[in-house]
């Protein structure tokens, strides 16, 4: 076939919901973080969102939306495994493996001119796996701290009074700095690897169509290509 499906419609919808809520959270969160600044761009930006109160409301709604999308994704994965539509295969899994560490080393050696061969990837490269699992880490840190900051009265009942000051400061730092890290990560890591590299610039269309050409599959994910099309892979090796 000229193309194969890489991500089904459910995964694509989940991705759209994730980055839509992420953008809303980033825009409103940035305004809220610097809402106390009386002058400058921050004061203008917070007014774009209707002031601090409205920005806070949008921020919380987007946060709930992101959490629901995350839970939907986890439940959908469970459904796929339960119905055996998805299985764990070392050549197609998104689970980090020792091979990923070796791939990092191999690529560094290639980039430094110490090796003539680049790492060969299965369905997911080490960069894509890092992309994926970073969301789980971020959802735990930002989600937990965000819940506490959104519902301080309820959470205050379980926080020891003697340590309440530094715990609230810690929760604020966790939420704010982890969010800033996520923004930097998305801009400089995810966008480059998935959309700005020369071979996919100006954008990869997989997140919209869900499809990848067999030629691109063979080039970017040769191990998966050999797994899906063993006969074609053998013919290519002979030539």
């Amino acid at each position: 076939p000229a193309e194969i499906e890489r991500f089904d419609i459910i995964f694509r919808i989940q991705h759209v919901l994730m980055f839509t809520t992420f953008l809303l959270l980033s825009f409103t969160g940035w305004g809220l973080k610097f809402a106390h600044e009386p002058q400058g761009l921050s004061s203008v930006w917070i007014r774009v969102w209707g002031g601090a109160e409205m920005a806070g409301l949008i921020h919380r709604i987007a946060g709930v939306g992101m959490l629901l999308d995350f839970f939907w994704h986890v439940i959908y994965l469970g459904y796929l495994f339960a119905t055996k539509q998805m299985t764990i295969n070392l050549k197609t899994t998104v689970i980090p493996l020792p091979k990923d560490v070796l791939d990092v080393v191999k690529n560094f050696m290639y980039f430094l001119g110490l090796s003539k061969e680049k790492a060969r990837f299965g369905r997911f490269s080490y960069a894509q796996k890092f992309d994926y699992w970073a969301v789980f880490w971020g959802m735990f840190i930002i989600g937990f701290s965000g819940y506490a900051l959104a519902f301080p009265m309820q959470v205050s009942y379980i926080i020891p009074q003697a340590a309440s000051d530094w715990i609230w400061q810690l929760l604020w730092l966790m939420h704010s700095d982890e969010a800033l890290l996520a923004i930097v990560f998305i801009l400089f890591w995810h966008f480059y690897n998935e959309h700005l590299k020369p071979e996919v610039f100006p954008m990869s269309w997989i997140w919209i169509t869900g499809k990848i050409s067999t030629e691109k599959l063979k080039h970017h994910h040769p191990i998966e290509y050999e797994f899906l099309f063993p006969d074609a892979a053998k013919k290519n090796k002979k030539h």
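Residues 1-87 form one domain. Residues 164-196 form the longest helix (33 residues).
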